[in-house]
Amino acid sequence: MLKPYASDPGKSRGRQFEEVISTFRSPFQRDRDRIIHSSAFRRLKHKTQVFVEHEGDYYRTRLTHSIEVAQVARTIAGALGLNGELAEAVALAHDLGHPPFGHTGEDALSVLMAPYGGFDHNAQAIRILTRLERHYADFDGLNLTWETLEGIAKHNGPVTGDLPYALSDFNRAYDLELGGYASAEAQVAAFSDDVAYNHHDLHDGLRAGLFDEADLMELPLTGPAFAEVDRLYPGLDPMRRRHEALRRVFGVMVEDVIAIARTRLAAADPKSADDIRELGKPMIRFSKKLYMEIKAIKGFLFKRMYRAPSVMVERARVTKVVEDLFPLYMARPELLPDEWRIDVAGCDGDTALARMVLDYVAGMTDRFALQEHERLLVS
Asked: Domain residues of the chain, as ranges?
């Protein structure tokens, strides 16, 4: 049973382009299905989370991360009486705008695109979903519902100030009310992202040997989790011990979000999904205590994992790949695939060309970017 403040698919604000309503799928379920079947979603399989795609089959990719975020979002949404299909759709799409090599690639493209309007992966996701996916006869993009697009655009909160061009261009045509908070489902997706990556980055960092369990014993949240496992299962083999401890960390984060959200929602007493948007503050968040514990873990991961010497060496290498490919395509757009050359012919000036080149480079997988760099610039 959905709560009154859950997003009701029967009251959706609809789609930018009118379509016949499905007889057996709700609008949000249809959105979720379109995202899963999109080309951009498939490419997440070979896009970096932290470790570059070729570094090992056991590490998370953007695809496995997005699936884990969706699983957490469904759980939290269900516990709160929210619409799980909308939460899942936002969760599955939230990283579609990431370029190859994760945040390293984003940092490089932000610098390269500074003269042409910048680069933001959230805005790029909207561009992909409303323009770059070209499969349907009647429209560009996936023609998702207003609620799903709103959730993707501002799942991290209101978007104010100078908007990234990729978002402002679409918002002029289809107002997503960027200055306010999104639905409770979109807020759930945002915190599910935090839960998922804090949990799996600990897993991946341990597997990569960037730190060990003794290091985690010194941290809040992880230390007590390992201590509890040692008390309940003395002598447990190392891999099982690791898994048991980190699944407890995962559970604490999920249970904390649900408990705090229930308290805040009860106090606010919203009567509709729009009431959530108009509260002027988020309903989904961690407790202050857990927030500080997670902040300590993030600081640890930043130093020992995201900025580990071996990771920094790889960051420098793949940064150069992006820094080489982008200006090459700008200088020689004839190197782009045939289907992109039609768009090149319509480019009016350097800014239009740069944004088209960005769309192409940002859509690359790690593997393809490395292959193209080798083919065009090394061999």
From this structure: 194-306
